[in-house]
Amino acid sequence: MQSYWIQSSAKQTTLARREVPMPEPGAGQVLLRMRAAGLNRGEFIAGHGLTQAGAAKPAGMEGAGEVAKLGAGVTGLAPGDRVMGRCGGAFADYALMDAREAILIPPRLSWEDAAGIPLTFMVVHDMLIAQGRLAAGEWLLITGISSGVGVAALQTGKALGAKVIGTSGSANKLERLKAFGLDVGICTRAGDFCDKVLAATGGKGANLVVNNVGGSVFAECVRAMAFQGRLATVGYVDGVLKAEIDIEALHAKRLQLFGVSNKLRSAEQKAESTRGFVADILPAIADGRIRPVMDQVYAFDELPAAKARMESNAQLGKIVVRMA
């Protein structure tokens, strides 16, 4: 079968297509005939550490496909079922998935829609619901809001009844995101948005902040937080891995700072997060209250071009690859 592999150096990641044997599902796994897979920026940024320098590994982290074969002990699924979920090596004809993370695809979703949902919206569930405890009427600030995670956070935040502020370097993208409920757009790529956040929130600041950008805006995120505010760090596309922390603000405003990553989570912890997503967000996707935002769909042969689009920062929403 055909499979893309990713290799990382200190400064970049590269893709190579290989012919490899079809995998066999082990106990608790399912083998999927892949139909589509989503791109995730963190996998393609060398500094994120998802691919160790010098080592090559199967590329892809989430996707959708048909169950082709069940491993020992798997119940509740059958060959032919349409499922989506987190899945290593998703950019391939076939891939293995932990059966505990296999989610039946709602009938209204296409393969491409489904492929861009699992990792993105489970990250959003982690930072908005599980850790962020976002409540109706609160203010949510999302830096780098036009990314796949950013747009999904906007949609989920609105579904939860929050008011949303977003930053982006593109005024055009901010204008387009108004159709998805964006309340306040701030056109900037720098750490200079605190005053506008305070003005929008009546001087109180944001109750929950999602930092998609990284260290270059971390201090500004802290400044923009409300009393008892929460700050989720989910990415660092700027490559800035260190930032100052205002200890006085942390102390006086009783702030909470937390990270959002699956890198060190156990299989059971990942399965638990899947169950949380299925309970809290999937119903809104299934009935159309949340509609996945697709930037572009590429053919399997065009994965390098899809990667280039992601790295160009031109996207609004998810980029997906469709299998032949």
Question: Describe it for me?
Answer:
This protein starts with a strand and ends with a strand. The protein is an alpha/beta fold. The protein has helices spanning 41-44, 111-115, 118-130, 148-159, 171-177, 194-200, 218-223, 247-252, 267-280, 282-286, 303-311, and strands spanning 2-8, 13-19, 29-38, 56-58, 62-70, 82-86, 94-98, 103-104, 139-143, 163-168, 184-187, 206-211, 225-233, 256-259, 294-299, 318-322. Strands 3, 5, 6, 7, 8, 15 and 16 form a seven-stranded mixed beta sheet that branches. It folds into two domains: 2-117 and 292-322, Quinone Oxidoreductase, Chain A, domain 1 (Alpha-Beta Complex); 121-259, Medium-chain alcohol dehydrogenases, catalytic domain (Quinone Oxidoreductase, Chain A, domain 1, Alpha-Beta Complex), CATH 3.90.180.10.
